[in-house]
Amino acid sequence: MDALRKLSILGIVLSLIPFRPGFAYATASTHIWAPSTDTQAWDTGHVTADVYVPVGDNSDGNRPEPVTNSGLTFGILPFKKLTAEAGFDYKTGYGDLDRWPMYFNAKIAIPEDAYGPHFPALAFGIYDAGTSKDRTNYDLVYVKGAKTFKIKNFSLGRFSMGYFWGNPKIMLNEDLKRDNNGIFWAWERTMPEISDKLWVCAEYQGTRSGYGAFNLGASVQFTKDISVICGYQFYNNRNLADTVTIQMDINY
Description:
Distance between the termini: 11 Å
Order of helices and strands: HEEEEEEEEEEEE
Strand content: over 45%
Helix content: under 10%
Largest sheet: 12 strands, antiparallel, barrel
């Protein structure tokens, strides 16, 4: 797609998102669960197909439905030191909320080392901006930083830390009280000792809402543009059944 067409698509995407002061921007580039500081490069796109499968029952004895997610994210800035992406997700498996399956996201970022060897990656964005007021407009706004650390030529991996804020009317804990903000962090590393195509990650997102979880996962890259991530989610709210994630990613 040429630049004019991409900007037109961005305008359509942004026009569909409920406005929030200061930022109004779905799956964004993630680690396993939460957004990373990465973005899609200009003139590239990313297709994802995810399924979240419960491994047991909730505390009330009911087995939740698997959640499926199909999404598209594309790069929207042609710069090296300032990047951005926008996209959407089509999610099902949430019962009555499946009447509003579209969610949107966007992110603006500065890549790691953009302004020197010690400069961290920085990102500011929003995701899960739904289309139904106080039903699906979770509108998680976040800031995040990341830095890769090494000892001589040995990589210790990349460490990320950030903070998020969501819609307090629908991000609730097990006591139905608002629990809509908190920290998230992640550690990730490619494992060249085993294979350059193997990546592992551990991450955490705060709150005892449905977003709060500790996640472990790994990815295998089959080709330059196709990879599969498998992960496991331990929810902070232990009334919720843990889930297994299987995610296929295709870049183009």
